[in-house]
Write a structure and sequence with these properties.
By secondary structure, the protein is mostly beta strands. Helix content is 11%, strand content 36%. The chain has one domain: Alpha-ketoglutarate-dependent dioxygenase AlkB-like (Jelly Rolls), CATH 2.60.120.590. The longest helix has 14 residues, at 120-133. The chain starts with a strand and ends in a 24-residue tail after the last strand. The relative contact order is 0.22.
């Protein structure tokens, strides 16, 4: 399914799943594999936690920093992607970077304590992950990467300045994108492919010792990253535009065109 963006020429297309020759057919959908994980099947159906805590694998980055990774942790990721796309109040900010004012190359949505989440499965996910890691995930952040020209440059999250060992959990929905991590100051880069409900968690002194990024790509389908956080650690910036979820679709049809970036926005 392809969704053309108005006047910008950008197309929002459903994340492709055709990668393998062996077709899998279920009562809810059919697909032919996934380049991210053999668990791509769990993108179909109703959103729900699909894998137990014991399936989470830890990667030691150093003696004091680690990343946990679990492909297909959240089932029904395709449906959840659609719900979050429609129900979230998407925002774009302009910030100062390297002496220049630039617009964030992505859209974001934030939910603080006491605010209703755009889907109840996110409340369950925050509770399950919080119990597993001993953390109160009181805040939820969403990043929408519309295509390959959206991304996040190398950085470490600001919470690392105030918390010695913060835990940040990320569930990736939609098309797989590289999530890369390297030591601060440079060094070998570790690459994780995340999408279709994959879970990635950064912990220990990861925010002090390492930096991470979601690089821009020549071609990429849409992706939403769901981030569970302890505090609101957004960098300062000026709000450029707000797009309620109700304005994203141009008709009531679930397969209709999606207007992610109105023509009045800067490219």
């Amino acid at each position: 399914m392809r969704r053309t963006l108005p006047s910008t020429g950008r197309v929002l297309a459903r994340a492709p799943r055709v990668r393998y020759r062996v077709a899998v057919i279920t009562n809810t959908c059919s697909f032919v594999g996934s380049d991210a994980s053999p668990l791509g099947l769990f993108g179909c159906g109703a959103p729900a936690i699909a894998r137990p805590a014991g399936a989470i694998e830890r990667v030691a980055l150093s003696a004091t920093s680690w990343v946990d990774h679990c492909p297909g942790w959240l089932g029904g990721s395709d449906e959840l992607f659609e719900r979050l796309l429609d129900r979230s109040r998407w925002q774009q900010f302009r910030r100062t970077m390297y002496g220049r004012r630039v617009d964030d190359p992505r859209l974001t949505a934030w939910f603080g304590p006491g605010e209703d989440r755009p889907d109840e499965v996110l409340e369950e996910a925050a509770s399950v992950l919080g119990a597993h890691y001993g953390v109160a995930f009181g805040r939820l952040a969403l990043n929408l990467y519309r295509d390959g020209s959206d991304g996040v440059a190398w950085h470490a999250d600001r919470i690392g300045r105030s918390a010695p060992e913060p835990v940040i959990a990320i569930v990736a929905l939609g098309a797989p994108r590289p999530f890369v991590i390297r030591p601060r100051g440079g060094g070998p880069t570790r690459r994780f492919s995340t999408g279709f409900g994959d879970l990635l968690v950064m912990g220990g002194r990861c925010q002090q010792e390492f930096e991470h990024a979601v690089p821009k790509l020549a071609h990429a389908a849409p992706r939403i990253s769901v981030m569970f956080r302890e505090i609101d650690d957004r960098p300062p910036g000026d709000l450029v535009q707000v797009v309620p979820g109700s304005r994203l679709r141009t008709s009531s049809s679930p397969s209709s065109t999606v207007a992610i970036r109105p023509s009045s926005w800067a490219s």
